[in-house]
Amino acid sequence: xxxxxxxxxxxxxxxxxxxxxxxxxxxxxxxxxxxxxxxxxxxxxxxxxxxxxxxxxxxxxxxxxxxxxxxxxxxxxxxxxxxxxxxxxxxxxxxxxxxxxxxxxxxxxxxxxxxxxxxxxxxxxxxxxxxxxxxxxxxxxxxxxxxxxxxxxxxxxxxxxxxxxxxxxxxxxxxxxxxxxxxxxxxxxxxxxxxxxxxxxxxxxxxxxxxxxxxxxxxxxxxxxxxxxxxxxxxxxxxxxxxxxxxxxxxxxxxxxxxxxxxxxxxxxxxxxxxxxxxxxxxxxxxxxxx
Length: 291
Known about the structure:
Blueprint: E1 7-9, H1 14-24, E2 28-31, H2 37-42, E3 50-53, E4 63-65, E5 71-74, H3 79-84, H4 86-91, H5 93-98, H6 105-110, H7 113-119, H8 125-132, E6 136-141, E7 144-149, H9 150-153, E8 154-156, E9 159-160, E10 167-173, E11 180-187, E12 197-205, E13 211-219, E14 226-227, H10 229-235, H11 242-256, H12 267-290
Parallel strand pairs: 1-3, 2-3
Antiparallel strand pairs: 4-5, 5-10, 6-7, 6-10, 8-9, 11-12, 12-13, 13-14
Helix pairs in contact: 10-11, 11-12
């Protein structure tokens, strides 16, 4: 199929892009990597009056070390760079570990960090990682800017806190605490397919091996990235041994995740996957934290 007619704009600066977004609002769509938007246009599930192409806005493509030792990443940074950049591997290894699960290299060469976060697909890897890393997102409009925590950015199915006149311009990831381990795992029918289930896990230990904080964020388990807070509270203040990890996995899979059955797998099977993946991810994160 072919998309419905639209006007095309290709601003070269962020200011001109913001002006266009303010002028057209909900009648416009922003084009980043296009890996999700172009199919929606072709199937006429999206019919914007104006398409605003951000690929010429070079100021939105960067990876920098922040003043506190964390990372600041531009919204137009390609997923392939997230996979290969040594700064990201050093300071946000969970992100580096997750990106190869995204589709195929051809997709990652075009797909962007900001585009994926703004699309908010519940089966996408990057929203899950952003939530697990306590990321903050910088939203700009002609009126000014605001920072939104990842936990407040994802509102529901394909829905975010972005207003009609705003553009997601930057993602900030805080520095990794000492003695922190991480793991990202998912299961799909074939490599590159959408995941049947997956999660990002993080564990921070004190010098005695006691868990001081933890993250368990699932994808394909609800209407957005799902933060299993009850399960992580079970870890905090305890030493994560195999018995406790089994209890945490059961809590997350049987109580907190909300998978729906489809033609690929039943909800019951997806809960089973969440249980198994949680055990594996927490054990791997715990090993890394101890080492």
